[in-house]
Design brief:
The protein is mainly α and 298 residues long. The protein has 14 helices and 5 strands. Helix 3 packs across helix 6 and helix 9 packs across helix 10.
Length: 298
């Protein structure tokens, strides 16, 4: 995963400036419509982080890192399909106030990568894992979580050039997977990271309008569901994104079948998933979901 952040890809200065402006404007607008965001961030940090002594950089524990990955997926999906001033976007801080703040703080690192500069000077190795410094938030992020924050930044900004750049960053990892597609199964933390990349790649393909390619990678995530040992949320999220792709392709019945499967099999997985399910159901079916829900257990 670290190699994703070190590959020498770069954009023109004009492109970087346009992207930065789009991200900042999008984030500022989110701040304007959600004034309680900083307070929500402070509560989240207090509850779910620990400090690295003596430099006082914050690290997230494994449970919180997994939450971050899911919350970024939720927020990115919502921003890509819903207008900024919609009630749904205004509800996002219920789940991911911290992630919105951190995605803003991660923009300088993204600008460095877009200019072709390596992130090595802004990272450190802790227990064999690379972490990168989000200076404004004093928080350390591993590579896949940093990629998740960048994907959220791309979704908030609405700038397609940023999504294209993220696709470039992920291409080598995806290419390695494609060479072993028929036999590949995720192995350990690195395998989990690769599944996250496949999911994000599929979402980015969908975002730029390459719907049929998106279908392929989202199906890849769903196909290996029995071998995913950590981020199980990726499977129903991939199913939701696949339903949106089918909807875009005019295959409404296929989209509806996926929604039914998610409702029956995964509806109780998390509040975040239920939020995104209801949102996508409304978009695809052009109505609220009024069918009875399975008993809630969380």
């Amino acid at each position: 995963m670290f190699s994703i952040l070190e590959e020498k890809l770069f954009e023109t200065e004009e492109s970087i400036n346009i992207v930065e402006k789009g991200i900042k404007q999008g984030i500022l607008t989110v701040f304007d419509i959600i004034p309680a965001l900083p307070d929500r961030l402070e509560i989240s940090v207090r509850k779910l982080t620990f400090e690295v002594y003596p430099e006082k950089w914050l690290m997230l524990d494994e449970k919180r890192l997994k939450e971050l990955r899911e919350h970024c997926a939720l927020a990115a999906a919502t921003h890509r399909h819903i207008a900024l001033f919609s009630p749904e976007v205004a509800q996002l801080p219920r789940f991911c106030a911290s992630e919105i703040i951190w995605s803003n703080g991660a923009v300088p690192l993204l600008s460095l990568r877009m200019s072709g500069r390596a992130l090595g000077p802004y990272g450190r190795m802790i227990n064999g894992i690379d972490y990168f410094k989000i200076e404004s938030c004093q928080v350390l992020m591993p590579p896949v979580e940093l990629l998740s924050l960048w994907n959220l930044s791309a979704a908030i900004s609405g700038e397609p050039r940023l999504t294209f750049f993220l696709l470039k960053l992920m291409k080598e990892v995806v290419k390695g997977f494609e060479e072993e597609r028929e036999t590949w199964i995720p192995d350990g933390p690195e395998g989990n990271n690769i599944v996250n990349v496949l999911y994000t790649y599929g979402c980015c393909m969908s975002a730029i309008g390459n719907t049929r390619a998106a279908v392929t990678y989202l199906k890849d995530v769903i196909r290996i569901k029995d071998y995913i040992t950590d981020d199980h949320f990726l499977v129903p999220y991939a199913m939701l994104e696949l339903a949106m792709c089918y909807h875009a392709l005019g295959q409404t019945e296929s989209a509806r079948d996926l929604l039914i499967d998610i409702k029956n099999q995964n509806f109780n997985d998390s509040k975040s998933l239920r939020f995104l399910y209801r949102l996508y159901y409304k978009i695809i079916m052009n109505e609220e979901d009024t069918t009875p829900s399975p008993p809630c257990t969380d």
